[in-house]
Amino acid sequence: MNADKNYFGVLIIGDEILSGRRKDKHLDKAIEILTRHDLQLSWARYASDDEAMLAQHFREIHQLGHHCFSFGGIGATIDDRTRQAVASALKRDIHRHPEASQEIEAQFGEQAYPNRILMADLPVGSEIIPNPFNRIPGFTIETIHCLPGFPEMAWPMMEWVLDNKYQHLAKTKIVQYSFTLNGVHESDLIELLEQFQHQHPQVRISSLPHMQREGIREIELGIQGAEPEATTAKESIAQVLLSLGLIHSA
Predict the structure, then answer these.
(1) With the C-alpha atoms ordered 83, 19, 64, 199, is the resulting torsion angle positive or negative?
(2) CATH code for the part of the protein at 174-243
(3) How many CB atoms lie within 10 A of CB 228?
(4) At what angle do helices 151-165 and 26-36 cross, to 10 degrees?
(5) Which of 13, 55, 62, 137 could cross-link to 88 by cystine, CB 3.0-4.6 Å?
(6) Could you name the CATH architecture of 8-165?
(7) Mind listing the pLDDT tens digit for each residue in 180-206?
(8) pTM for the model
(9) What is the pLDDT of residues 68-86, one digit of tens each?
(10) H or E element in which residue 217 lies
(11) Residue ranges of domains in the chain
């Protein structure tokens, strides 16, 4: 299993989100946090609290070697199955993690038993992720990082993981550029976009159509990637768009 530094994903867990009882706040914030660290989100998944389904998600993510932040399901109640699902996916036993136990005991004393201490039962091989809110830790195992569902806990913990485990990856700034093309059909751009992508394989070229009032068509042509390749692509593409009359200035 070879981790690919280019792929970061989020797995957002909870029946309450899929049923509409709660609105997800993690996706937008994860994009914001990754961007601040000069990283980008490659995918996102939503999953119920079903343990077998969760295990399948984690198994696939582990096999791909992608870096994953999961949100939710690491509590001690019957519907919190993330710890068990990760252990199943990675074929690990569950054991009482000594550092996690120390954190929970330090926070709650005797009231850590008999229930809160269950949150220290983690897959073998896990490292804890400190929780600055109430000291109940998350955990990291290989490239999977499991965080609570509560935003006030999860987001600082995600920052901690990136600061402590991925600072070596944030060497290249990720930037985005866009051009607005008016009065053109997206289908008319297919060959041109394929040509752009072939000429600039290290960046991502995207086309996002909008239908304006009175049937006026508008295409947002996007360029996203690392510097300096993204700026080079933007300048090259701008010259082609100018020569075709699709934009009036770069």
Answers:
(1) negative
(2) 3.30.70.600
(3) 11
(4) 30
(5) 55
(6) 3-Layer(aba) Sandwich (3.40)
(7) 998 888 888 999 999 999 999 999 999
(8) 0.82
(9) 999 999 999 999 999 999 9
(10) strand 217-226
(11) 8-165, 174-243
